[in-house]
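# step 3/5: fold
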Amino acid sequence: MDYKIKSRIWIETKNNVLLGEGRVQLLKAIEETGSLSKAAKTIKISYKKAWNLIDSVNKSAKKPVTINSIGGKGGGGAELTPYGKSLVTAFDEINKNCWAFLDQQLESIKKL
């Protein structure tokens, strides 16, 4: 029989989620597009939802995760701070290690 483990991880503060797969996906899209609105379109969520997610991440983090410039004639933009990039890298590493651990643990079920 072919078994799979399903899991999702996220990192919380007392009252908010700091990072989860969706938030990290949005942060990566901001890094790629240089814009919150383009990032939202890329991952198929509304601009309002994207703005709320980024606002929540920035309020939950020790330091700012994004730098936003207001739109206008030349257009606005968004980019990750060095701290934001480090958070994304750390989350990806934690997620990768979590999956490796779960795959290893699944072997005990397969042996039964």
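# step 4/5: annotate
The chain has a mean pLDDT of 91.
# step 5/5: archive (pending)
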